[in-house]
Design brief:
- This protein is mostly helical and 191 residues long.
- It contains 7 helices and no strands.
- The protein has a single domain (21-189), classed as Orthogonal Bundle (Arp2/3 complex 21 kDa subunit ARPC3), CATH 1.10.1760.
- Helix 4 (102-121) runs antiparallel to helix 5 (126-152) and helix 5 (126-152) crosses helix 6.
- The chain is globular.
């Protein structure tokens, strides 16, 4: 062998892109950062503020799938639990998990998994993306409202009125925006 590039290429073939975890790791980190940024855009309207976090959770599921989407949310939650100011309004700490919004925060885990699993198994069409996010929103409300009622002692009807009803119009807009973003970004992320 004369040490030419052709010889080195034969000795050290590149790893196929599908087995290299660097790209999905970077995307998962990016989505964890986007969830944190979405938390800073908070509008306080009661015990549960309006935030953009859930839009990024939905997008993580749609674009990263169940496994890497789950990793992204886990990194985001762990950052907040250890005290980094990544939760709504720039707060952090394990106390947030035990507070009124803890059910929504922990609910991001099953939500991103569900949205990601549906995105992996259903045809890549906007209608299915929207259906996956609606299913995710229902799971998020179930986790969040149940937790809100348990932590605050509110009756279920009052917990629904405070933890779900004011968020429905905004969540519909976030789902529509996420569907459009996913449609535009998918070809770039998966060339």
């Amino acid at each position: 062998m004369n040490g030419s590039m052709q010889d080195k290429g034969a000795l050290y073939p590149p790893r196929p892109a599908a087995t290299t975890p660097l790209r999905p790791m970077i995307y998962a980190s990016l989505f964890a950062a986007l969830m944190a940024a979405g938390a800073y855009m908070a509008i306080p309207i009661g015990p549960v503020p309006i935030v953009l976090q859930n839009m990024f959770v939905f997008l993580a599921g749609l674009l990263l799938g169940s496994r890497w989407g789950l990793a992204s949310v886990a990194v985001y939650l762990l950052a907040g639990i250890v005290g980094l100011p990544v939760f709504a309004g720039g707060t952090g700490g394990i106390g947030r998990i035990f507070g009124p919004t803890g059910g929504f925060l922990l609910g991001y885990l099953p939500v991103v998994f569900l949205v990601g699993r549906m995105a992996e198994r259903l045809p890549r069409r906007m209608v299915w993306d929207v259906a996956a996010m609606i299913a995710g929103a229902m799971v998020l409300y179930a986790c969040g409202v149940a937790w809100l009622a348990a932590v605050t002692g509110l009756p279920p009807a009052k917990a629904l009125a405070l933890g779900m009803a004011p968020f429905l119009p905004g969540d519909a807009l976030k789902i529509a925006a996420a569907a459009l973003i996913a449609r535009a970004v998918r070809p770039v992320m998966n060339p």
